[in-house]
Recover the amino acids of this structure.
């Protein structure tokens, strides 16, 4: 998931919101609560027969997360399976909704420790990117983006988007801030309203 601390994560802390490694337990509890309260109902409602698997920590799942950027595997209603990368962000402390997606291009840009970001190695079919609509609320405005199409569109114009570095993280994750409205226009997307009781109509 946009990572706010080192290591794999499914649900991200908000871009631009200060955080510390000491916040790990709090962030992890929030991630799990969002997964269970919001993502689980969404997948039950939208996967064939309600069949899906969260990629939790194991030898194999760590490979799927770290090398392929896969957080959940769903049974498609069209047949076969669908792999999804999830980024769910907290509501900003300043009370202003975020206008951009943070697309990670470098997991660690520090000299001699450089590692690529999930926009480089990610192989998921979809990127599910959600924004918390209010502080403490289990309510998200989410976008289901065709991931491989997003990558093909993004990379030829990556330099045109503002670079942003999460300097407060241990590995200084870096990426580009891409306007939500632009991605929505290019891929003809509408937001999904995702709440603790399942997916609602588009906003």
């Amino acid at each position: 998931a946009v990572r706010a601390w080192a290591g794999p994560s499914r649900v991200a802390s908000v871009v631009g919101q200060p955080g510390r490694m000491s916040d790990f337990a709090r962030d992890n509890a929030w991630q799990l609560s969002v997964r269970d309260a919001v993502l689980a109902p969404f997948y039950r409602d939208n996967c064939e027969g309600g069949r899906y698997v969260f990629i939790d920590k194991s030898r194999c799942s760590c490979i799927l997360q770290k090398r392929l950027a896969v957080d959940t595997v769903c049974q498609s209603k069209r047949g076969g399976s669908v792999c999804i990368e999830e980024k769910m962000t907290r509501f900003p402390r300043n009370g202003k909704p975020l206008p951009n997606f943070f697309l990670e291009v470098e997991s660690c840009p520090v000299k001699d420790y450089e590692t690529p970001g999930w926009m480089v190695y990610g192989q998921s079919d979809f990127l599910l990117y959600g924004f918390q609509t209010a502080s403490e609320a289990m309510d998200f405005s989410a976008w289901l983006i065709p991931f491989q199409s997003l990558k093909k569109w993004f990379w030829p114009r990556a330099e045109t988007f503002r670079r942003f570095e999460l300097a407060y993280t241990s590995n200084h994750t870096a990426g580009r801030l891409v306007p939500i409205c632009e991605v929505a226009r290019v891929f003809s997307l509408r937001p999904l309203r995702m709440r603790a009781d399942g997916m609602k109509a588009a906003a």
